[in-house]
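Fold this sequence, please.
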Amino acid sequence: MSRRWWAVVVVAVLAVAAVTVGIATSRAQGSATLQSLSVAQLLAKVAAAPQSTTAVSGDVSWTNGLIPGSDLTGLLGGQSSAPSSLSGLALGGSGRLWLQQGGGLRLESQGSGSDFVVVAGKDGLWSYSSATGTATRYAPPAGASAGTPTLSPSPQASPADTLAAIAAGLQRFASTGTVTMGPQVTVAGRPSYTLVMTPASATTTIGSVRVAIDARTFVPLRVQVFAKGDTTAVLSAGFTSVSYGRVAGSLFTFTPPTGATVRHTPLPSPQGLLRAANGPHKGAAHATALTLAQATAAAARDGLALTAPVQSSLPASLAFEGAAVSPSAKGHGAVAVLHYGNGFGSVALVESQGASGASATLPQQLAGLPRGLSERTSVAGTTAYGLSTSLFNVVAWQHGKVTVVAAGMVPKATLQAFVAAVR
């Protein structure tokens, strides 16, 4: 539990590497100041960093170049300057971040005339917007446990064991992409190594993901995502100044200001779509993906009639890979996810019926986007609406009573070919 905060940082490197990369033996480019390390050696040092680094704080900034700023502001509810909600953080901005081992996390974003604060500590997760005068406390999702394990290495694990485990994990994902050592850089005034993760798929829109890691503390300092063929990061987040001194524990305790409106809201549960059930009423998690026939039968038992593309009409890169079905529960209907293609070049087809969440109204939300962002098209004779960005594309429509969403980090033309095959 004392290292739970570190998962926020370590997951950004280890989890991304685990799902995107294969083992590479290239080493850091030559430098008179930094030791030459292999990818696996660097990741092992990142995994071991919590044992010596107990706190991180500093000025941070993040940018979002997926959608023009004014359009993204409208899409997320008209926020400008400092955000007024957690979703508003996606707009980009700057502020200050504190992380303390065994303490928690605090992020403050300042804007002209308003501030936004997020605090995660022993008394839970809070956010506060001075623009709206609202403090929100977020309840953990159903089934969440305070004892959820983290990715911090066991104190008993030897460096050799950690290195071997990371190398083996990278090798298992060799077909998905590669990770290499990039040029050494300076981030927040600190000499840093760079990990460059490059997807193997020829059809993905992602060119690379680059993580800058402090060469002395091995703390990740910056993450950048580049679209294929672009030399400017589309998404970027990182420190502009950093300190590793101890942080006052009082920073992780939040008390709503006098006069603030206090709201309580649950966090969404990630479990629903992770339960690949052979039948919608068994309630147990299954690691094996369903076939299309199994998914169709499981969904039908919950009143959800699936639609799917004709495989012979799909591009060769989008073969059916498996499906998951989450049974209906209080407040929402069954949800099915059909997966086509491999790695970052894949497309997910999400189908739901009777959902009370945002997915039920996504076609209408896309239809209401500013002109130039939303594109009207037709899928199987039904009006559909799409959203295109440099990294991902989405098309949503209603198929009878079922809301269908096709999305992927693939080019617009690839997604259009996919939905054109839906019958």
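The CA atoms of residues 280 and 327 lie 5 Å apart. The domain at 272-420 is CATH 3.40.1000 (Protein Transport Mog1p; Chain A).
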